[in-house]
Amino acid sequence: MPPSSCHPYAAMAAQRLLPVLRDAGADEAVRRTGALLAAGCRVVELTTTTPGWAEAVARTAPLADARGRRALIGVGTVTTAGQAEAALAAGAAFLVSPYPAPEVRAVADRHGAAFVEGGFTPAEIASAVRRAGAAKVFPAHVGGTRFLRSLTAVLPDAVIVPTGGIAPAEVREWLAAGATAVGIGSGLPDDPAELAAVFADLAVPCADCEGER
User: Fold this and answer.
1) How far, in Å, CA of 142 to CA of 76, rounded?
2) Which of 16, 51, 174, 210 is deepest in the core (most CB within 10 A)?
3) Pair 213, 67: CB distance under 8 Å
4) Is 24 helix (H, G, I), strand (E, B) or coil?
5) What is the pLDDT of residues 96-144, one digit of tens each?
6) Using CA atoms, how far apart are residues 83 and 211, in angstroms rounded to an integer?
């Protein structure tokens, strides 16, 4: 399958909900990623806290979503240059850190990779946005949606992904506060039909992705 022509930021903005998987091992991560792809999800974040995470990335990166488009598998909780290099070597489409990570940023810049750098203070978030156009707000539940509204008011064009302590039922509230996409670590339904309904209800068209089949 050819590489995706859709930038991860554009795909996140269209999907609007970013599943963040922390699993007991690679097999479970692959199984859950497959279920998400079948349910209409395309962008999935695996994490370095999962044992065998690099293997899981290598096994899921070549997969396709329900529309036949190449999956965009990211790696989160990336905090070192070694993790960043391993993630990209395994086929990661983007990197995510939980806090400012200069070593990871350097690797992403060298490879031309998308990097959603974590931060919590306005200075950290603005700095990440200036460097790469995107930032992860973590832990998002501490500041809440009012905090996010204040951030997006002064960073209107930024890709902002709040993550941490957000329930699936709260996603629309965060989107209304200005989030580009919302990271969800738990609470998504296991039933395939219910899971597909979640993504179908939230997704919006992505012009950058429409040409991919």
Assistant:
1) 20
2) 174
3) yes
4) coil
5) 999 999 999 999 999 999 999 999 999 999 999 999 999 999 999 999 9
6) 32
Q: Which amino acid is at 157?
A: D
Q: What is the 3-state secondary structure (H, E, C) of 26-89?
A: HHHHHHHHHHHHHCCCCEEEEECCCCCHHHHHHHHCCCECCCCCECEEEEECCCCHHHHHHHHH
Sign of CA dihedral 79, 83, 84, 85: positive
Express each pLDDT in 90-105 by its tens digit.
999 999 999 999 999 9
**87 to 32, 79, 91, 174, 203: CA distances (angstroms):** 19, 11, 7, 29, 27
Active-site residues: which are they? 45, 136
The CA distance from 106 to 108, in Å, is 5
Structure tokens at 20: 């963040």
In the numeric block, the tokens 């709040």 are attached to 162
SS3 state at 194? helix
Q: DSSP assignment, residue 120?
A: -
* Coil vs helix vs strand at 190: coil
